[in-house]
TrEMBL record:
This is Citrate synthase. It comes from Cephaloticoccus capnophilus. GO terms for molecular function: citrate synthase activity. Belongs to the citrate synthase family. Keywords: Transferase, Tricarboxylic acid cycle. It comes from the Bacteria. GO terms for cellular component: cytoplasm. It holds the Pfam family Citrate_synt. The active site is at H311, D368.
Length: 435
């Protein structure tokens, strides 16, 4: 039996080569189809289209598997930390002690946001959407550091280490600055502490002029570290595809990352954990433990939308949701927080695990279901949830940009379309057009 798929079109036969990934993923190579036959493949939203070959992240949605560079997410969550995982995602291997120190030093060196960039915040109202501010200032990094943003792959790859560390570290600092800008508080300088401790310090220190520094509880630091790690990368999602799309034009790293931030700002992508919190709050405000809400959702009520369940990729339990759900219980217990929304979330989760309505539709909790509750426990406002997501995902965006930039035979991303507009027609003078 032939291993080469054959496509029959208009009395002609075309051979379409196979591509197989290291984990057994199979694809049909249609790159020559249009040139040889005049046909293209139609796949609205790219839901079944492989746009690239990548060595970064592997997902098996049916089995609930997520691995970064071959390492299971469960092992990384248990034994690694965000900065080490960031290094792994970007560079392909776990760092040795010297590499880890050097990477940490680069992050500390580039944590501060320079005064000219700080002044950009003066142009934003305090009510400006946080992700809009983040996308704007990340893009502005290219203007303030042109030596790292030549829009030339060869030149930009030569300074990649510095640009990557700057993007990760400054995105973290910008997140804290956005919080303080919205509160009308002065910015707090970076501090020589761990990555997550420094973020919390810049967020919450000196609420009043001359006030005390914020000392984060170890449980808080650990929880934030886990949140960032679990969001480090997730294959070719909307924002990552946007980064690769923009990067394929030879755009610099910062411009490409800004595109990723913009894509993540959409409520169907990065805003999902915010929607979960709004849903849980509505259930609580209605005096419901989740039972009525579940029945309304099952009945097809248009006013009852179940958020945080199901995923575009996973047809099994999102492995990140299992990890973050267990962490949520521990964090709230250690901090002595009795959050009624967590009780509702537990009830909804248990319903999903035993009710045939959920099981038959493979509607399991995803990572967004519990991440908002943890962030709320850490004192992070709902308006900043997606910014925290971006802080973690910057790592994966950088790794994907690097794959695009380092391909010797790369090409600009250019999807095709099936045109459905008017056929050829002649121009009609104004006087002859119908009223």
């Amino acid at each position: 039996m032939t291993k080469t798929p054959l496509l029959h079109l208009e009395n002609k036969t075309y051979e379409l080569p196979f591509i197989e990934g290291t984990e057994g993923e199979k694809a049909v190579d249609v790159r020559r189809l249009r040139a040889e036959s005049g046909y293209i493949c139609f796949d609205q939203g790219y839901g079944n289209t492989g746009s690239c070959e990548s060595q970064i992240t592997y997902i098996d949605g049916d089995a609930g598997i997520l691995r970064h560079r071959g390492y299971p997410i469960e092992q990384l969550a248990e034994q690694s930390e965000f900065v080490e995982t960031a290094y792994l995602v970007i560079y392909g291997e776990l760092p040795n002690a010297a590499q880890r120190r050097a990477f940490g030093d680069l992050l500390r060196t580039h944590a501060e946001v320079e005064e000219p960039l700080q002044r950009i915040f003066e142009g934003f109202p305090r009510t400006a959407p946080p992700m809009t501010i983040l996308a704007s200032v990340v893009a502005a990094l290219a203007a303030h550091h042109p030596e790292l943003a030549a829009n030339n792959f060869e030149k930009d790859l030569a300074v990649f280490d510095t640009a990557a560390a700057m993007a990760i570290s400054k995105t973290r600092t910008l997140g804290a600055m956005i919080y303080r800008h919205r509160k009308g508080l002065p910015f707090v300088p970076s501090k020589d502490t761990t990555f997550c401790e420094n973020f919390l310090h810049m967020m919450f220190s000196q609420k009043e002029p001359g006030g005390p520094d914020y000392l984060a509880e170890p449980e808080v630091v650990k929880a934030l570290n886990l949140l960032l790690l679990l969001h480090a990368d997730h294959e070719q999602n909307c924002s990552t595809a946007a980064v690769r799309m923009v990067g394929s034009s030879s755009a610099n790293l910062f411009a490409s990352l800004s595109a990723g931030v913009s894509a993540l700002s959409g409520p169907l992508h990065g805003g999902a954990n915010t929607a979960v919190m709004e849903m849980l709050q509505q259930i609580h405000d209605a005096g419901d433990d989740g039972s009525r809400f579940i029945e309304q959702a099952k009945s097809g009520s248009k006013s009852t939308r179940l958020m945080g369940f199901g995923h575009a990729v996973y047809r099994n339990f999102d492995p990140r949701a299992k990890i973050i759900g267990a962490a949520c219980e521990k964090v709230l217990a250690k901090l002595g927080i009795n959050d009624p929304l967590l009780d509702i979330a537990r009830h909804l989760e248990q319903a999903a695990l035993r009710d045939d309505y959920f099981l038959s539709r493979k509607l399991y909790p995803n990572v967004d279901f519990y991440s908002g509750i943890i962030m709320r426990a850490l004192g992070i406002p709902v308006s900043l949830f997606t910014v925290i997501f971006a802080m973690g995902r910057t790592t994966g965006w950088i790794a994907n940009w690097y794959e695009v930039a380092s391909q010797p035979k790369g090409r600009i991303y250019r999807p095709r379309q099936v045109y459905t507009g008017p056929v050829k027609r002649d121009y009609v003078p104004m006087a002859a057009r119908p009223l």
